[in-house]
Design brief:
Distance between the termini: 50 Å
Strand order of the largest sheet: 2-9-8-4-5
Number of domains: 3
Length: about 525
């Protein structure tokens, strides 16, 4: 029996590892000073970086490198004047002329590291002879994924198993092996949490597995580290309270365990945080109770309180359905994001699996009412439950669809002389974009003009303006490819259309970059 559960745990962890994870930019860089590729006449005293949300800083979060990749010693980054979303790095005096690379790697609000780099030059640019890659070590990423999966599985087995063994079974009648399933769940929860705690340091800093203990102190100084320590303490307390038979304190401890996930994941970022955290907590708790309880029912189907668990499962799935619909909306925002982002596609997969579980649960319920054994459908439910938890584990690492998905900009403006300007920016995201401009006459034909130039201005109209190089694709159709935008935010694309040798029209188009 325990072998069956072990196989399911291994299947869950393998599924978590095999589904591609997208540790994409949860916190995006929105401004730097100097700006990317800016050439300065004199050396600045300090660098300033601003992200879209709060980030955790470590000693190696921001590094200054010369054009050959040699690290230049600095005093380390500190918080900027605008709070936890900014960082300031003081530069050593007397830097020689040339190009410098600022490589950054910080921990986002939801505990995942994000990284990037930009360059600036003093005096005159010089050739950069290396690539500032801030990726994590593959071994560290793999172990971290396995550890997170084991912790998820342990939470479900501990909470769901405890509900069946200590609440649904008549007092003191649950067999000893069923109780050992609960203790096994607590053990997996502790093991997975310790693994994540040890891997978070090298995962966040881009180091190797050999730095698991040397970076532990920096992890313990972060919000995520505090949550992991709280999870370990609560898991031990949960087991101790169950041993003593104190069910209500144990239940409160179990609920608190759930919050050690939702207070440090996507729930505390984005829109409607006040509702997102409770909804995500209810969703995770219902999933844990249903799946962990289902495992116990599967192993002990002949003796387990199947009818009582069946009624509880209906309540769990009602909570899962209501909270799941809201969380899908909160993290996706638009229907198009479901098909066009990894996060959205994972949600669709999870929904399809959930529908399959509901169908099996319906037949299980009918089997219970008829007095026949539901073991076959319960086993199928359990396998689908493993798949659901595996997808959930990957969703924790994936960039929310609301952040990843952006509608291409498609707008039409009226210019002088009856000319219409049709403009598209695709995908309207940070990085490389393609901008098309069509100059249309009243009769729908393209209007040929001698020249079109463009300039991209940041929201504050400051020094970060960028020239946009348009080329003529055909008479009346101009293309800028790529139009590189260094950071998300509200921009203005200023178009200057020279209609004759002496006349020109100027238009300003708001461009929102995500």
């Amino acid at each position: 029996m325990l072998k069956s559960v072990a196989r399911l745990a291994l299947l869950f962890v393998l599924a978590s590892a095999l589904i591609p994870s997208a540790a994409a930019a949860h916190a995006a860089i929105v401004a730097t000073s100097p700006t990317d590729k800016q050439v300065l006449e004199t050396q600045p005293r300090e660098l300033t970086l601003t992200w879209s949300e709060a980030v955790d800083l470590t000693e190696r979060s921001i590094r200054l490198l010369d054009s050959t990749g040699q690290v230049i010693e600095t005093s380390g980054a500190r918080r900027g004047p605008d709070g936890p979303s900014t960082a300031v790095l003081e530069l050593p005096p007397g830097l020689p002329d040339g190009t410098y690379v600022v490589a950054w790697r910080v921990v986002s609000t939801d505990s995942h590291p994000v990284s990037g780099a930009f360059t600036f030059s003093i005096g005159a640019p010089s050739q950069v002879l290396f690539n500032a890659d801030g990726s994590s070590d593959a071994t560290v990423r793999t172990i971290d994924t396995f550890a997170r999966g084991i912790a998820f599985f342990g939470l479900a087995l501990a909470l769901g198993g405890a509900v069946v063994v200590f609440a649904l079974w008549p007092p003191d009648t649950a067999p000893g092996p069923a109780r050992r399933l609960v203790w096994g769940g607590v053990g997996l929860l502790l093991a997975g949490t310790v693994g994540v705690l040890l891997m978070q340091g090298p995962y966040a800093s881009g180091g190797s597995i050999t730095q698991a203990f040397t970076t532990l102190a920096s992890t313990l100084d972060t919000r995520f580290g505090h949550a992991l320590v709280a999870r370990i303490v609560l898991a031990v307390a949960f087991a101790g309270l169950l041993v003593r038979g104190w069910r209500i304190p144990a239940a409160l401890c179990g609920v608190a365990l759930v919050f050690t996930w939702t207070l440090v994941d996507h729930s505390r970022t984005g829109v409607q945080i006040w509702l997102g955290i409770p909804a995500a907590s209810a969703h995770l708790l219902a999933m844990a109770i249903w799946f962990g309880g289902l495992l116990v029912v599967l192993v002990y189907a002949r003796d387990a309180p199947v009818a009582r668990f069946s009624r509880l499962a209906v309540v769990c799935w009602a909570v899962l359905a209501l909270s799941g619909v809201y969380l899908s909306y909160r993290q996706s925002g638009e229907l198009g994001a479901l098909a066009d982002t990894l996060f959205g596609r994972l949600l669709l997969v999870k929904t399809a699996v959930a529908i399959g579980i509901l169908a099996l649960a319906y037949y299980s319920r009918r089997a219970v009412l008829r007095g026949t054994g539901p073991r076959g459908t319960v086993a199928a439910e359990t396998i689908l439950g493993v798949a659901t938890l595996a997808v959930t584990a990957v969703l924790v690492n994936a960039e929310p669809a609301r952040v990843a998905y952006v509608d291409p900009i498609d707008t039409t403006l009226n210019a002088s002389g009856g000319m219409a300007v049709e403009l598209t920016v695709n995908p309207a995201k940070q990085g490389e974009n393609v901008t098309d401009v069509y100059l249309m006459q009243r009769n729908g034909a393209l209007q040929q003009v001698p020249e079109l130039t463009g300039r991209l201005l940041p929201e504050d109209g400051g020094s970060g303006a960028l020239d946009v190089a348009f080329r003529m694709a055909e008479p009346g159709h101009f293309v800028a490819s790529p139009m590189t935008v260094p950071y998300p935010g509200d921009w203005t694309l200023r178009l200057q259309i020279r209609t004759t040798e002496f006349d020109q029209t100027e238009l300003e188009v708001p461009v929102k970059i995500r």
